[in-house]
Amino acid sequence: MPNRKLIPDVIKDQQLVCLPPEASVQDAALLMAERRVAALLVTQDRPKGGRSLKGIFTERDLAARVVAVGRDPAATRLAEVMTASPDTLGPDAHAYEALELMERHHYRHLPVTADGESDGTVMGIVSIRDLFAVVRAHLEDEIRDREAFIFGSNYSASAPP
After folding, report:
1. Quick one: angle between helices 128-151 and 95-105, nearest 10?
2. What keywords were assigned to this record (predicted)?
3. Distance (Å, rounded) from C-alpha 92 to C-alpha 63?
4. In sequence order, what E strands does 14-108 have?
């Protein structure tokens, strides 16, 4: 996992799932279900292009801040229940930095902004699932390297004896 940057090593060709702060929670839930994602970014279009991050809305927010307290999803705006000014990382941050931050604060999703600032221009979102894939690939590479060292370069665990 060393030296793997969030963009382009972890996040590639990502289609952002975003809504403005005035969108309803119901709109967010429908979009999240349609796109099969557990979080979306709450953004505002910038006059000169790009999107400014305002917050993040996750399944946890939906459960704890809407359903559990009996709010009407159709009448509740994202601005009322999103996590405003979330922690972010910049695109040059390494995967281990994201993993460390997510572990420390118990996040499953972390926005990536151009400058790493919470109100910066949105570039993507990294999930714990994305980072799991990076860790898994790294461990598989480590195992292959060790097998080659121990048994010789022609050895493969999948090859018949």
Report:
1. 130
2. CBS domain
3. 33
4. 18-19, 39-45, 51-58, 83-84
